[in-house]
Design brief:
Distance between the termini: 46 Å
Helix content: 25-40%
Strand order of the largest sheet: 1-2
Shape: elongated
Structural class: alpha+beta
Number of strands: 2
Strand content: 5-15%
Number of helices: 3
Length: about 100
């Protein structure tokens, strides 16, 4: 149902297109979904997108719906990229990394 709805809304929408659309299903509840529209950070308008609002209004009659806007934490992205680079270099030098925890 959700995939068909998204397809219809994306085909009908002539405005801005998100870079990606992701749909997540909650593991322990079949009727819970999360839809994420991924946009370029430098969008002109950082408010709600027309497409996001259309999806929200289309789904609000199906149950509880919530619409919010989130911005990626670039510091976290930098940490992940730095760790990836460090692990790649270690791998190229034949070093294996491991993480151990104790209680």
């Amino acid at each position: 149902m959700v995939v068909d709805l998204l397809k219809q809304l994306l085909e009908a929408d002539t405005g801005e297109r998100p870079d990606a659309v992701k749909v997540y299903n909650r593991v322990d509840m079949d009727n819970m979904i999360n839809i994420q529209l991924h946009w370029e950070v430098n969008r002109k308008d950082k408010g709600a997108s027309i497409l996001g609002l259309r999806i929200f209004y289309a789904l609000k009659n199906c149950g509880r719906a919530h619409h919010s806007i989130w911005i990626a934490d670039e510091k976290c992205d930098e940490i992940i990229q730095s760790a990836d680079t460090k692990n790649k270099r270690a791998s190229e030098n034949g070093v294996k990394s491991s993480t151990k925890t104790s209680r």
